[in-house]
Structure formats: C-alpha cells, structure tokens
Amino acid sequence: MFSYYLKLAWKSILRNPVLSSLMVLALGLGIGAFMTTYTVYYLMSGDPIPHKSDVLYALQLDNWDPNSPPTESQRDVQPQITYRDAEYLMHADTPATRQAAMYRTSVTVQPESADEPPFDGTTRATYHTFFTMFDVPFLYGEPWRMTEDDGRERVVVLSRKMNDQLFAGENSLGRNVRMNDALFRVVGVLDDWQVTPRFYQVDGGNVFADAEDFYIPMSTGVEMVIQPHGNVNCWLAPEGGGLDAFLRSECVWIQFWAELSTPEEAVAYKAFLDNFVRSQKEIGRYPRPLNTFISPVMEWMAINEVVSTDNRVLVRVAFLFLLVCILNTVGLLLAKFLGKGPEVALRRAMGASKNAVFSQNLVEVCSIGVMGGVVGILLAWMGLQLIDKLYRGYQNLVHLDGAMLSAALLVAVLSSIVAGIYPVWRVARLAPAGYLKTQ
Amino acid sequence: MLKMTNISKVYRTDLIETHALRDLNLQVEEGEFVAVTGPSGSGKTTFLNIAGLLEKPSGGVYELDGVDVSRLSDRDAAHIRNQKVGFIFQSFNLIPDLNLFDNVDVPLRYRGWSAKKRKAAIEEMLELVGLASRKTYLPSQLSGGQQQRVAIARALAGAPRFLLADEPTGNLDSLMARQVMELLESINAQGTTIVMVTHDQELARRARRNIQVLDGQVSDLDSVYQAKVDRIAKAGAAHV
User: Fold this and answer.
1) Is A433 close to B54, i.e. CB distance below 8 A?
2) Coil, strand, or helix at residue A330?
3) ipTM of the complex
4) How many C-beta atoms lie closer than 10 Å to residue A166's C-beta?
5) Is residue B160 part of a domain?
6) Does residue B171 fall inside a structural domain?
7) What's the structural domain count of chain B?
8) pLDDT digits over A194-206, tens only?
9) Which of A355, A387, A406, B164 is the most buried (most CB within 10 A)?
10) In which element (H, E) is residue A253 found?
11) Which domain holds residue B87?
C-alpha cells in the first residue's frame, strides 16, 4: 500500500500546487534556518578525535601570581605552561604513554623560484610524538625522530596542501624548504588532515581554522627564535633580557598534551604532576596552592568554552523559528486536509478503515516533509555559504556532511509529522456519511 | 441477507434531539431488488448509511448475512463494507484526478489483491459498463451517465453481494437514467441484492419490491407490495 499512498500523495500535492508550495516553503525555511545554525554548532561542539578523545589529556599547572584571586575553578588556571616545565616533563620518566609540548607560530617561506614572493606559513613547533599521539596521517615519509628533536635538526613536515603548492604534489622527501633564511629538510608530507575544532590549540587564534601547513621540532623553533603566535602570559617579568631569560621565566606559552591510555595511567600521571609541583614549591616556585589538572579532549573544550553561549542561543532561536514554521504548516495542512473530506468519505465507504486513511495522509504529510527537507537543505547550504563569505576562518564549519544531511531530512520528516499529526487525525475521524450525500 | 429489527437513530446536539429512524423493521432477502422511497427528511439516507455500515444505529439489531453488525468496530465495519457492500451515489463521487481505471481500483486497493487480479477485475467491470476503451480518461471527460456507469463499475469490481444505491439516477436525464436502471436490473438478475433509495416513483416501480420510509419507519410496505402483486395479476389476466 505504501507505493499506492505515495502515488496518491503526489496527486494530492499537485492538486493544489500553491498551497503545497507554501507548506514546503514554510517547512523549508524553518529547517534551513535551524540546520544552518545547528550545523555550525554541531561542527563546533563535535568530538574532533572520537577514537582517542578520552585518552588525550591537556595539562594545567597553577603557576601564577600568589596575589591574584584564589582559584575557584579549573577555568581560573592558565591553559598553558612554562617552557622550562614543558622541557622537564618532555624529558622526565612520566607514567604517560606519550607526551607532546607545542606552540603555534609562523615562518617566512622563501620559495626556490625568485619569481615567487615569500609568504607566511602557519606553523606548529612541537615534538615528534605529536603525530603519533594525534593519529596524523602521512602521505609521504613519517614523523621526525627523537634524535632530531634532541639535535634541534632543521626538518619539516608539510601539509598536503603546502606540498601541492611548493612541490606540485610530488613526493618531496629529502628536498629542502627555505624558511626564516634556513633550509629545512622535508621528512614527511601529511595526507589530508583536519580536526575541527583544533582542540590542541584552544587558547588564542581561531580554533576552527585549517590545521597548520608546517610542523618543525620545538627545539629547532626555540633555537631559531621563531616566536610564538599564540598567547604569552607572564605574572613575573623575565629576569634579565634575551632568549635564555625568557625560556627560564614563569611566562606560560606552551600547550602540553599527554596520552594516558588507562584510567590507572591517568591517576599515576596526575600524582606525578602533583609531586613535580611540590618539588618546585621547595625551590620557591608555584606560590599558589596546589592545583594541577588533566582534562580529556571534550572536557577541555567545554572548560575553554569552544562553543560560545551565543551559538547555543542562536540554535535555540532558530529552533523556535522552526516551531513557528511548523505551526504555520499545521494551519495550512488543516485547511488542505479538511478539504479532502469528500474523498476520505468515499474511501471510507469503499472499505478504508480510519487507520488506512490516517496512513495514507501521513504518507502525504511525510512527502511534504521530505520536500521541505530538500528545500531546507538547499537553504542551509546557502546560509552556510553566506557565513563562509561573511566570516573568514570558518571554512571548516560550513559544510553539510552525510550525518547532517540525514539529520536535516529526519528533522524535516519529524517536523512534518508534528505539523501533520493533528490534521491527519482530524481527517481520519471525519464522519463519512455527511460528505457522501453532499458532494 | 439484511435484517433490521427495531432500528432507531437519534442525532443529538446541545439544543435538539432528532429521531431519524424509529423502530424500523425490515428484511431483505438474497437477490432482491428493493426500492426505498419516501419524502425528504423521512430517514431514507439514514437508513442507507446504517445499512452500509457508515453509521451505527442508536438502538435495535442489524444483521447482515446472519451476523449482528450493529456494534462493529471501525476496522471490522470497514472490512465488511469492503467485502460485501457496494455503493452507488447520486453525485457519482468519482475522484476527479484519478482516471477511470484508478477510480474503479479504489475499493480493490483495500482488498489486498495482487495487481494482476485487480487489473483483470477492473477491466472486466469497465467492459461491463461499456467504458473499457476510456480507462485512462479522467471523470471530467465523461458525461454524467458515463460517470455513473464508472461508479457502478467501481461498486461491482469487488463482486459485492449487496449493492446500496442512493438516488443513482438523480443527476441524470431520463435517457441516461433508463440506461443506468437497465444496468442495475441486469446486475440484479445475476444475483446481486440491490437496495435503492429513490424519489422517482417510476424507477421505484421497476424494482421487484417497494418499501416506503415515513417519519423514520417503514410503512405502507404491505399495501405497496400488494398493489404491485395485484397489478401484475391484473396484467396477466388481461393477456389471458
């Protein structure tokens, strides 16, 4: 009967094209507005690394001004740590499976051809463990090794996009890229890789922007004085001038992540950090009470409010708009379906039960919903394109993936059912006798 | 076939209570062609609606094929309507945007028949009413008489044993009315029981039995029936 109901639905929709179009448009507008805002929200709040997000932890060590207000929540603790602490932890024998210190920076790339002007390349200075820890896929080569971290080697891993730009997509392993007046040897080229949001860099910069194009050892970046482009916060001015003073200072500018494979490992790692801070207190550092935190990815994004309150409000407003559209559709459907009284009465006389009439009209309502969904998806796509045009750096938030397309259709069908259930129920309960005589 | 005992139907609103049928008693045997006449508002249509299980009586017992159908659930009533009852209406009640084939298909869709079986039944019925060549036409492309023939084909497609006709010729001119009446008579001759509500006394006289509904009750049944018997007897005597 389903195909028969579909055929009848199509005929009924065509019978009154203006009214049908209004219903489809009303649903489409509501779904378009809701899906536009919800897509942005969904991509902002989604798990960027679902298979590992519960074993990757960000570190917070409360090494701040003792005269600042007391720490009331984890949000009050700096999200970055000092270079000296990062260096210690990277070389200490910790219970962690892996650790990676990192900072965001930029390099000036000087192409081989004199015709091409130099340009700035977004860069992450980190340790070789970054790639394994975050499951970064390689197209060519592999991460540099620990010896290259320790030896401050001038090696670089390129993004696929940058390899396309500099080497026309060829296997560039062993070739050199001139950056900041130094030659860096290509040891790896990433395959397409984008985590949205970039959970490993929530402090400073756009967390929804593309992943970096260049990856170099942090030790090399520091040695070449390639300065951080993220936040650098100091509660105590460096003692003396120069790079060494800055590196020895209490300024926080390094993001630090640890892979803790089991809950036991996490407990042991937290204890290790607490002991480390206590030992530092003995030499006059860490003047505030002991506050060390380790946070898995999703918790880390919540603490740092990656999804702003404005976004949540916007999704709610769009949902209310969808409800208004549904309410309008209820009125239109009621008008349409009550006009079907004579046909319903005839079908009832011919042997259709109330359930059969209900099902037939429900299929029609769902068909309108699917059409509204398609219009809604089109409008959502246009809305997302508009966001992309109006705001830079949100390109990773403005695409409808398979899940969102399915969700849009599901929302459309559910909306149409919500809108249509009362009109469909009413029409199924019409007393047929009254209509048969008066046709 | 059909037996109504003390059937009553009361319509109630906040202000008024209308007794459409009062203690109506009627029995129709298998194969009969019964004409139901009566003035407007006498309860003919209410009687037809109850007979076709489109409404439930307020009181009394209605038996169809020996089964009490007075208090059936909606689902069961729909099933019996589909299996046993065919309807013919004064205004044809064809669905305007379905072609003739699909219009005749309507009751069969609720039968659960295969597409092949439905197609065969539809084509046979359209052949019977002389419209097989126009099965792809829309109702609006036909005359009133042709539309009523389609409605008859639709009523007969599922081979019901019981046909209810509500003023089947009310919207037709006399020529077309006669053709439709002849069609109904031939259907009855093949064994289908027909109950026809009509205002038209001439048509009523062509039925094998006449009953009159007056103020919600069957009346004059014997006298009308007897008069007809007498008329036939007199005609027979004249021939002799």
Assistant:
1) yes
2) helix
3) 0.84
4) 21
5) yes
6) yes
7) 1
8) 888 888 887 666 7
9) B164
10) strand A252-259
11) 30-55+74-239
Distance from CA of B187 to the nearest CA of A (A): 19
**Torsion angle defined by CA atoms of residues B223, B226, B228 and B231, in that order, rounded to the nearest 10 degrees:** -120
A354 part of contact set with chain B, CB < 8 Å: yes
- Domain holding B230: CATH number? 3.40.50.300
Q: Locate the DSSP E strands across A305-409.
A: none
Both tokens assigned to A333:
């459907």
User: Does any CB of chain B come closer than 8 Å to the CB of residue A433?
Assistant: yes
Contacts of A3 in chain B (CB under 8 A): none
Give pLDDT, residue B240: 46
Element (H, E) at A437: helix A432-438
Chain A positions touching B107 (Cβ under 8 A) are: 350-351
- Are B88 and B166 a contacting pair, CB within 8 Å? yes
Q: Where are the domains of chain A?
A: 2-48+308-438, 63-290
In a domain, B156, yes or no: yes
Summarize the confidence of residues B54-77 as an average pLDDT: 88
Tokens 């407990």 appear where?
Answer: A267
Tell me the pLDDT tens digit for each residue of A268-313.
999 999 999 999 999 989 999 898 999 999 999 888 887 777 777 8
Return the HEC string of chain B: CEEEEEEEEEEECCCCEEEEEEEEEEEECCCCEEEEECCCCCCHHHHHHHHCCCCCCCEEEEEECCEECCCCCHHHHHHHHHHHEEEECCCCCCCCCCCHHHHHHHHHHCCCCCHHHHHHHHHHHHHHCCCHHHCCCCHHHCCHHHHHHHHHHHHHHCCCCEEEEECCCCCCCHHHHHHHHHHHHHHHHCCCEEEEECCCHHHHHHCCEEEEEECCEEECHHHHHHHHHHHHHHHHHHHC
Q: Per the domain annotation, does B202 fall within a domain?
A: yes
